[in-house]
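HUMAN: Spend a minute on the protein record below and explain its fold to me.
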Amino acid sequence: MRNRRALWFVTAIILILDVYVFSVLQLVTRHFGGVFKIPVYTVYWSVCVLVVGVMLAFPYVRMSQKKLIVRNYVFAIIIGIVLAEMSASLFFVIDDIRRGIIWVFAQFGAGSSFIGVDGGIHRSVILSWLGLGVGGTLFAMLMYGFTNKYNYQVRRVKLSFDNLPPAFKGFKIVQLSDIHSGSLKNKEAVNKGVDIILKEHADLILFTGDLVNDRATEMNDYTDIFSRLRAPMGVYSVLGNHDYGDYYAWPDKSETHRAAEAAAGKHVFTPMQKQSIEKLKEMQAQMGWRLLMNEHVVLEKNGQKIALIGIENWGGKGNFAKYGRMDLAHAGTEQYPFKILMSHDPSHWDVEVRPKYPDIDLTLAGHTHGMQFGIELPRVKWSPVQWMYRNWAGLYEHGKQKLYVNRGFGFIGYPGRVGILPEITVIELDTSN
C-alpha cells in the first residue's frame, strides 16, 4: 500500500512539472505559427502521457532478465526527462520569485515600470529560454551517455613510497573494479576492453569487487572473456557488495528468513543465495583468478617480498554490509615492509584502515562508479556521489598512506556514463629514493 501511495505521489509531482514547464513553453512559442506549435505541443503531451502511463504500469509488469535491460533504458529516459524538467524549473522558480517581489513592491506603489500595459507581471523571456536550454542540454547529455558505457579509458598513476622494496621499483599493476556483468550486453566491446588491459603487460592484475549485479549466472556469457586476463604475478580479486546478492529477491526468502534477519540485525543468506556466492567463487577460480577472502598472499620478486591483502566487502557509509575481517587478513603481514590492500568500498579507508592499520601503504577500491555522472577537468572534479563519499574517484593521500578509487569498468542502473567514463587503472610503483 505504501509503495502504491508513493508511486501516485511521484506521478502527481511529474504531472505538476509537466504543466509548469508547458506554461513556459507556451510563453516562448506564443509568436510561433500553428504549423510549429501544434506538432511541438502534441509531441510534448504525448511524451508526458507516455511517461505517466509507464510509471503506473511498471509495478504490474513481470520481466525476464533480458527485458530488465529494456526497463533500465526506459527508466533512464524517464529519469532524464524528470531531471531535465526539474533543472528547467529552477530557472522558472527564480523568475516567479522575481515576479512575486515586483508584485509586492507594486502594492506599495513601486515597481510599476516592471508591470506590462495589460497590468500583468510577465515572465522573463531570457530566464525562460535559459531554463529550457539547460533542461534540454541535460537530457541530451544523459541520452548521449548511453554511447559511453564501453568507452574504456586508461588512467596511469605513478606512486612513490619510501618503504617499497627496490625489486618492486617499476612494478606495474592493472586495477579493475565493478564489472557488473549482469548489465553488459556487448561482448565485442567488453572483449576490446580486455585487449586494452592485456596490451599493458602488467606484472599484476587486481579486481576490487562487484563482478555481478546480483547472481553468479550473470557471468555465464563472460567467463570466456575475463579468463583471458593473465599476469606474471597473477590475477587477484575480492568480493564487492553486489556479489553477495543482498539486493535480489531470492525465491526462497521466506517470512521466517526475514524474521531471522531482523533478530540477527544483519543479512542472513538463503540457501539459493549461498549457492550463488559459492558458484561465483568457483567461476573466479575457473577463470584463473585468486579470490582473497579476508586473507593475504605474499608477492616475491628477486628475493624481496610485499604483502597483498584482500578482504570481503566492508562498507563504512550507508547500509552496506560489513563482511570484511581486517583482523584476519592483516594478521601475519607485520614482517613485510610494504602492503597493498584490496577493499571494495572506499569508505573503509577512512573508517578502519587509516585509524587502525597505519602500515597499509596502498589501498585499492571501487564501488562508487563516480556515480557514472559528473565533470572531470584539469581543475574541476565534481559528481553528486561526493555528497556521500569523500573519496569517490582517483587518488587520495593521508600521510604516507594512499587510496586509489577506480571509477568502474561496467555500469549498473543508468546504462551509460556522462563525464565519468569506465576506467582501466595502470599503477606503477616507485621508490622515493
The two ends are 65 Å apart (CA to CA). The chain has a mean pLDDT of 91. The longest strand covers residues 153-161.
